[in-house]
Design brief:
- With about 300 residues, the chain is an alpha+beta fold.
- It has two domains: about 150 residues, Ribosomal Protein S5, domain 2; about 130 residues, Alpha-Beta Plaits, CATH 3.30.70.890.
- The strands form two sheets. Strands 1, 2, 3, 4, 5 and 10 form a six-stranded antiparallel β-sheet that branches. Strands 7-8-6-9 form a four-stranded antiparallel β-sheet.
- The chain is globular, with a radius of gyration of 19 Å.
């Protein structure tokens, strides 16, 4: 039987700090129980894979590390993460594929080395990455991230909560385009400062074993001030807040169409689940912070 190497990495949500993290402020992130699995064996790429610029870039990174000119491999990708959704699909794909290729060729990578490679991949696809997505994908769990440094966050009160992710529609803009939109907004610095303060508040609360879900609503209002939330997401959030849910988009957002997924919680998770069904929304329940990083198989 031919050798096959497999690696799985989870996606993520941003609890607070979207966009402000790009300016060096604190962000809090949690891993999802969904992700990307990459399998690598001897063979060749499909025609579609050979024309995939991001996949080719990842293989070039792997070849560079391995000191090879090319890689004669077959690749299979299985993902439970929707793309352009704010859930870290590009970083999870990079981590899973790079780790699987390294495993296949017998090259061990430290998590720090893998993080740097995933960061390079994210810079390729998004233009410039804060490093937050690569950090939470590679290290998993709950993280406080700031200025390229990540610190594990122990917050059992958060992992005990029930969350839902509601689809507002895929963003038509790229993450890089949304980051540029904020940077070009002359009113953004004041709002970014408020998001930074909110992130510090949530961090302090979690360290003390407190969970205030209303901070989600405050974060959402600030993201709307930044102009990164489209009308489709706003309408969903207004309806959810009217029934007592606390929610926000999680990711760079989107304006022209959808804004990716909305992260929501409620004091009565069964009630919220029923209401989401009644409203005909596309959603799923999620556990946050349980993944400890990549898994090999």
């Amino acid at each position: 039987m031919s050798k096959t190497s497999t690696a799985f990495f989870s996606g993520k949500v941003i609890l607070t700090g979207e966009h402000s993290v790009v300016f060096g402020h604190l962000a809090l992130l949690a891993s999802l129980d969904l992700g990307v699995r990459a399998s690598v064996s001897a063979g060749e790429l499909s025609l579609e894979q050979r024309s995939d610029a991001y996949l080719q870039h990842l293989l070039q990174l792997a070849a560079r590390v391995l000191g090879r000119k090319d890689l004669a491999v077959a690749i299979k990708i299985d993902s439970t993460l929707p793309v352009k959704s704010g859930l870290g699909s590009s970083a999870a794909l990079a981590a899973a594929l790079l780790q699987a290729v390294m495993n296949f060729f017998g090259r061990e990578l430290t998590k720090a080395e893998l993080y740097q490679l995933v960061l390079e991949a994210e810079n390729f696809i998004h233009g410039s990455s804060s490093g937050a997505d690569p950090a939470i994908v590679v290290y998993g769990g709950l993280l406080a991230f700031q200025g390229g440094e990540s610190t594990p966050l122990q917050a059992a009160i958060l992992t005990e909560q029930k969350f839902f992710l509601i689809n507002s529609g895929a963003a038509s803009e790229s993450t890089g385009e949304m980051v540029t939109l904020v940077k070009n907004n002359p009113k953004a610095p004041a709002t970014i400062a408020k998001i930074a303060e909110l992130s510090l508040k949530m961090h302090e609360d979690l360290q003390k074993g407190r969970w205030q879900p209303q901070l989600f609503d405050q974060n959402q209002a600030l993201l709307e001030e930044l102009g990164v939330v489209g009308e489709a997401a706003k309408k969903i959030i207004v309806k959810l807040q009217a029934i007592g849910a606390h929610c926000k988009i999680t990711g760079a957002g989107g304006v022209a169409a959808g804004s990716g997924y909305i992260l929501a919680t409620h004091s009565d998770s069964h009630f919220l689940s029923n209401q989401l069904q009644v409203q005909g929304l596309d959603f799923f329940g999620a556990s946050l912070g349980e993944s400890k990083g990549g898994q090999n198989a």
